[in-house]
Design a protein that fits this description.
Order of helices and strands: HHHEHHEEHHH
CATH superfamily of the largest domain: Winged helix-like DNA-binding domain superfamily/Winged helix DNA-binding domain
Number of helices: 8
CATH class of the largest domain: Mainly Alpha
Number of strands: 3
Helix content: 55-70%
Strand order of the largest sheet: 1-3-2
Structural class: mainly alpha
Number of domains: 2
Oligomer: single chain
CATH architecture of the largest domain: Orthogonal Bundle
CATH topology of the largest domain: Arc Repressor Mutant, subunit A
Distance between the termini: 28 Å
Radius of gyration: 19 Å
Largest sheet: 3 strands, antiparallel
Strand content: 5-15%
């Protein structure tokens, strides 16, 4: 559906302005679709992202700085997210042997189990992009990379 119809706005200041609004709207639209996947597991999209980062490092622990660098939502408070995951027994925190100011974070078996149950989420993106051809998906990826360039 066209952006104009979705938000009830017929005119934009410029094509650049429309693109900005379209990207924000589309990001929020995708987040809303994904949020439903995580509700049954009582985790957020940001917590899911941190768990995936930790699974990628497993069995090695990583520190909060590395988690923050790899997060998709850079505005999120990685320390607060790790604290919430710790309270849910999805991660372990241990004092770093090399630097007592640092904390090593490691995903738990329970955290790994939740991710295994949610592995289907990656395949669900096929539904979101079903209106695009493979070539259009490649072009969109290239354009977004170029935009952030």
């Amino acid at each position: 559906m066209k952006l104009e119809d979705e938000i009830g706005q017929k005119k934009f200041k410029s094509d650049n302005h429309k693109l900005m609004v379209n990207m924000i709207y589309s990001t929020n639209w995708m987040n809303a679709k994904y949020t439903g996947y995580f509700e049954n597991h009582e985790i957020t999209i940001q917590q899911y992202n941190v768990l995936r980062i930790l699974r990628g490092q497993f069995p090695k622990p990583c520190n909060v700085k590395l988690i923050k660098e790899r997060m998709l939502d850079r505005m999120s408070d990685a320390s607060r997210i790790v604290d919430k995951l710790f309270r849910k027994n999805l991660v372990e925190r241990k004092e770093c042997l090399g630097d007592r100011r640092n904390v090593d974070v490691l995903i738990t078996e329970k955290g790994l189990q939740i991710l295994n149950e949610l592995d289907y989420v990656d395949d669900s993106c096929k539904d979101i992009f079903k209106s695009l051809t493979k070539n259009e998906i490649k072009i969109l990826n290239n354009l977004l990379d170029k935009l952030r360039g």
